[in-house]
Specification:
two-stranded parallel ribbon
Length: about 290
């Protein structure tokens, strides 16, 4: 039985992996958060790998607060860069496979064509820069690795845009939502299935991949769909980014081309609104239980 290490064990992606892993009975999944394993501490990571005989590591741990990263660069660097490097080095030493989860924020969004993996990253802020450095730390340490960039991640777990909208929709009659930032919402359960497919196949199709759901939406479109599907009566008004200033600049266009991952891993990717229906059903079930 192979031991699979999932870092960021209390986050939404790791929790979604836990939800859908039932088919992989030949694997033993170990979920850790900072209390069980501090990935920023080199020795702690090394000892953990030695004690648990890790065969595969999926790094879901990250400092993801985009705005706070601007003032907390040191923390973001330690988690997003040093943590990724420590895990990659441990994987190299113990001959374990490594999946590093990254982000669309490595791009500046100043284009109108979906990003392919070979496009030159140009992050706008500290969060995107540290995630890019985490990618580089991974690729410089391990020749054979997986980097998966994703975007606008949400699920029935944790804190995310979808759950925030559901809460605000019941508290307010009118909501202003940014309409000039365009990307693709990604249901974490779908990404979890892709990760598990890589593990189940013991894949050697190493490299950098883009994964989001299919389609294109603005945050305004995303919010409107959440309320429409949930039958919540709230008026959503589109606003420009300038009307909602934030410490960190966001990419205006972060749609990613998924041709590579579809071809290399032979997967079909659901349309974002279809996956949103699934997620909202699960949110409702969790609330009622």
């Amino acid at each position: 039985m192979k031991n699979i290490l999932i870092t960021g064990g209390k986050g939404q992606l790791a929790t979604c992996i836990k939800d859908v892993k039932t088919t992989l009975t030949a694997h033993h999944f170990i979920y850790v958060d900072v209390d069980e394993l501090d990935i920023t501490k080199t020795k702690e990571v090394e000892v953990f790998f030695e004690e648990h005989n890790i065969a595969f590591c999926v790094n879901c741990a990250a400092y993801t607060n985009v705005d706070r990263s601007e003032n907390e660069k040191g923390i973001a660097e330690r988690i997003n860069v040093d943590g990724a490097r420590n895990l990659a080095e441990a994987c190299k030493k113990h001959d374990a496979k490594f999946i590093q989860i990254s982000t669309d924020f490595v791009f500046d969004g100043k284009t109108s064509q979906p990003y392919i993996e070979e496009n030159t990253p140009k992050p706008l802020g500290v969060y995107g820069l540290t995630k890019l450095k985490g990618e580089l730390a991974t690729s410089e340490t391990l020749n054979e690795h997986f980097i998966i960039r994703t975007s606008w991640l949400y699920s029935e777990h944790g804190h995310n845009f979808c759950k925030t909208m559901l809460r605000l929709g019941k508290e307010r009659d009118v909501l202003n939502v940014v309409s000039d930032q365009v990307g693709t919402p990604t249901y974490a359960g779908d990404l979890a299935n892709v990760i598990l497919k890589i593990i189940a196949r013991d894949s050697v199709a190493y490299g950098t991949y883009h994964y989001s759901n299919e389609g294109v939406a603005s945050w305004y479109d995303f919010a409107a769909a959440i309320f429409d599907i949930s039958n919540i009566d709230v008026k959503v008004l589109p606003i420009r980014s300038e009307a909602y200033p934030t410490p960190a600049e966001r990419p205006a266009f972060s749609v990613m081309d998924k041709s590579k991952i579809k071809n290399e891993l032979e997967i079909e990717i659901p349309y974002w609104r279809d996956s949103l229906v699934t997620a909202l059903q699960k949110i409702k079930l969790l609330k009622n239980n």
